[in-house]
Known about the structure:
The protein is an alpha+beta fold. It has a domain at 129-340 and 357-368 and 378-392. The strands form 8 sheets. A 6-stranded mixed beta sheet has the order 10-11-9-8-12-16. A 5-stranded parallel beta sheet has the order 19-26-27-24-23, sandwiched between helices. The radius of gyration is 30 Å and the shape is globular.
Amino acid sequence: MATLTDAEIEKLFSGAPQYFARSEGHYTGAPHPSVAFPWDEVLEIRDLTDHTQIEDKAWGCVTAWPHITRDVHSDRSTAQRASEQKRRAHFYPRCRERPNMLSMFGLEKGSLGYQAALELSVADALQEEQWGFESLATRTCAVIEQRQKMLTSKDGLRHIEETLIMEQLIKNSQRYSEKHRRERRVSSELYNELFLQILHPPTKVLDHRDPYSLAVQISALVKVLAAPNMWIDFSHVEWRIRLGQLLWGADPEDEVSDGASTRTGESISDIHEERYWLLMQILLACELLIRLDAITEGEELGVESIRPAEIHRFEKDANKSVKWSLILARAWLENIEVAKSEPTGRPHTEEKPAGWLATLTKRMSLAREHGSHHHHHKEPTYAIRGKHVQRQVDGLTHFARRLRWPDAESYSSKISQNCRAVVDGTPLTTPMASPSSRADSHRSSSYFNLPVNTANKPKLVPARRRKIAAALHPSGWLSKSYVSGLMLPGEGLCHFLMATLLENDSEAMARLGPMANLCGGFVYSGKSFWSTSCIVGRVLAAGKGAVECMGWISSDVLPQGLGDGWVNIEAEDSTEDARHVDRKARIWGKRAIEQESNVLGDADPNSVLPADFIIPFENIYKDRAPPMIRVELKALTLYAPVDSVRTTPTETFGATPMSNSTCAPEIHTYPAAVSFTVTDIDTDEETEHVYALSKDVNFVTAHPCVPSQHVKIMKSPSSPTIQQVDLSGHGLSGKTASIIGHPLHKYFTYTALHLSELIAKQDFSLEALLSNYASSHHRPSLTPASNSAAKVLVIDCITGFLSQPQEHEIPLSPVISRTDSYASSGANRSPLSPGPEGSGKFESGFANALESASKKMHSESRRRQFGSDMEILARAFCAEKGWNALISRRRRGCLACAIREAGALGWKVIIRVD
Length: 914
């Protein structure tokens, strides 16, 4: 046979995703995983994704990646304003959260996308802390010494009064909102402002061409922000969450109502000083970002230029901590405004506005009495306000509705009433401590209420999914963080959403208690709610009627014998996952990822034969037909608590003396299991199966594909696939057999087992299943592969099952519409030999099907409501065995592409569902 040409190979694999991991440049960390369609130019194919879109503008802060938010509450005028803002060029730091939060919400409920699956092993949560989270109480002398050194140096930071910090933040906000920043600002004006008020001027000339250039100012700001042991490093997940606690959780009058620390006079001073340094960090980052935006806009308009050497120096000097400070500055400038009010002539008693949203921000009274006790001159009061409070409240009601929160409609009305109570932001209380007010490094208590005695402190074991608990209280800092919109990318938004939902529901708070396990689950009002960080949530998500929204699952399945309350689930990482983290992670094997998922397998690109490919199937059973079975979920069981055994520490945010008291209900840790009844329809025989959800495995949505329309499988003895195709004439016309799927190279050996056959086996390992593979049985080929063992196990959850998903349900997102409708639109012919030239255009049937499906979309749902007890069983089986698995759904993606994706991930199991 003649070898395939490059053009024929490209036609053969049109619409097939290809998997990559490429470095983004120096100083950018682990490689970036991506999926691409390099041989397709049609947007309907190139835009395919394995994850959902962000549904609400209020949730856009979850990621630092560029993205388009599909707002279900679309306001045309608001959208137009947002579009105008996006047209302005701005600086984009090459630094994002890991894992990519866009990819954390796979098309299959409770699943990830390809990028997140690879990045979990190099996640931000795996990093060791620079200071430790009790830093305000036990931080080293190096922090205090570094700050004092910076303030006393003539080549660093000036001593800045609190009033100046707030005034500069106001000025930066005004600059940021200017329509044409570059035209109204000159470098010399910015230079004088920076080096006369905030920093000491450089001791030597950095740029002889223009000593006052933006590049000189940028270099000076980067130098200060990159100083070690001085600023909060927001590359750490916990500090991103605790940002709001530092701003809003530390005032004396809120000791009970807020989620803050144990109080002593000394610890309050600690908190005020740390807040001073945080606001200083925000100010410096805003100053830097304003200049980077100006130089970026100038480049775009052709009025500014920056040399490559300066770019290289910036990338080298601006470490990860600096880049995260820039992300914080962007979040601040986009979401926060500082309002100034002059002091009145006579003292007055401030009335607190009603409603929890009215306490969104705190009073920052920078008032000080100067001179004698009788001198009453006071400085202005400043208030920190969220710019988009209504947007955030709308996002919260959207979250409640999507999760089918009990009595969600009246809940929505309650939020709206509280929102109307907010007219002006309440000011932020201090005075903040002067940075030179103390130098004592001995602390009597910890702000975050973690043990000060390190001998008794539990060891922080890095985990791919860290457990997080929080103390809840109405108007607490968790709610304020969400409603203000001041949140940093990462998993924090998922925690803030649920915490705010609960803190605004008095009945839920009364029944669930003030302590929340935000990486576990709870039972409330006849439903169970689970974080997708919990294996129970990821398994139950596969059920009919389960709903996922922003990292939370709601289900009608309740744990047996458990009333309203929080639970933690005992589960451990699979052995393979525990070994392959950080530098040992799969993501670093860039070449292996691409080679082991290559569409041509291990073939020489110059000698690819048609006979090297087949169309894989999951439902070929030569010896016997699989039984017709029905699967029914019987129970979710939580066994006796095992609180003495902890595989992963729980980080507690916002713990107070009240929340830690004996009156607070304790959150117990349980092993979980699910039980099923499997009925053989032919014999009416029932068997019971129980699976322990003991391994913290992950599920990934197999990436969608669109089988090529360029080629056909011909009735030819030279095609090995002909042995797998029924050419008896039933439903076929002529010599062409229509098959849904891409071809698979013989390098990718696999074995398919029916789910009923798998659960009937006793005492086996995955390696044993794969090693028993016989290539001649499953892989007819004129050029047999030399591999003696299968690379992938395909669990057939399609053939012979009752109670399958309803086929009349309409795809509910543009992505899913394109992929799920291809079978009926003429895009289902799969290739082996090239078709006629000029057949590359999409048929009108495909476009019509896409348009028809898009018109039927419903704004409140993003996934097809697939799901069944059978799918729960398949996931539960993998959770007991410790198998990470891809979920490959027929008509969304073909089996061949799923097998190649498994090769990219280094995984060995695919669950193939209808």
